[in-house]
Fold each of these.
Amino acid sequence: MILIIKHIEIEGPGTIEDYLLKKGYDLMTVDLHKGDSLPNDLVGVEAIVSLGGPMNVYEEDKYPFLKDEDAFLKKAIKEEIPTLGICLGSQLIAKASGAKVVKSPVKEVGWFKIDLQKSAQSDSLFKGLDKKVDVYHWHEDMWELPKGAALLASAASASGCPHQAFKVGKYAYGVQFHVEITDKIIADWCRAYFSSSDQEKQKKAKEMVEAYPRKRKSLGSSCNIIYGNFVQMIEARKKQLNLAAK
């Protein structure tokens, strides 16, 4: 079973859910914002996907579930469960690994390219991707690199967010950008997070949504490589556990 952690209704698993279901995995979605609880242990959990949200990782008084997730992710990293954190999810993994989450030097909202580091070319999650990847962003915070972690991607532009993807431990990854995005998700976020009276933001919203069909094929190709690599990690760990149990 793959556990999907949601922090707000409109930030769902999008294309990663579609991919995993087509591969035959059983998914369990925990809606923390609705009061769902995380499992008491990791028995039967093959992988974890922690999604985005508008909150800051330190707002534990306002969102008590963040404290529970922090403890849960620490356990998952220690037990080497394949874990992928997206945007807020990546920041939570970084915090659980002892790193600080700070304001990004630039608030990134829209389509921006990232540069993969040389180390990403042979990395289990990013192998097979082009050196530059065009992805969607919506964040104003960023993680600092956890101790012992590998930085795998940074902004292609010198003025962009320098920290875009990292790996910590054996199977835990954080990506600051949104691989799971769809045109509907972008539109939902614009309605929720942009004021309808702000003409500049409404123009930007229209441009971002209209760009999706042009970018969908390239984004889908990149995401399928990442998702496929994630599945390979899940299966490799299952095989190791089965061999160890014999």
Amino acid sequence: EVQEMIEGAPGDYRDEILVFNKLARLLRAKRFRRGSISFDKVEVKFHINYYGKPLDVYFKESKEAHQLIDEVMLLANRKVAEYIGKPKQNEKVKTFVYRVHDEPDLEKLNTFSKFIKRYGYHINLANNKEIASSMNQLLEEVKGKTEQNVIENLAIRSMAKAVYDTKNIGHYGLAFEYYTHFTSL
């Protein structure tokens, strides 16, 4: 229903939803300007019958309504992590569980870079900001092409894995200094 309202249909709280969607777009744009990587993969889903037997496979597209929810959850996770993790005046940092994502491993990225050159693509490995920017450009370039799935999967595998930790090192993939993951628990 929310997606339909975003696309112009009438509905309860439509004006409020449109304001939220505008804010979500701004948050998303700001996140990408700061170096967030867009790993928006197409999800494979199954239609399942009453007995749990798969009947059909389909691809779930991430639309604006999904992105609105994602941005609000990211904001909530970030703000809670900042509130707890940033020490106040004359206070020491509290123990907290962060969702952290280390900077990329250049060896893995070099291997990935050599692989994608076979397809005519490249990524800039000059620094972390350039890596994120060129990775986003690459992911946009491969959309809809036969090599999209393999390149997206290998791009994800070339990055460090996000983990939970009490030591905050930030979240490279989201370009957040403070991040936790309570909204997905």
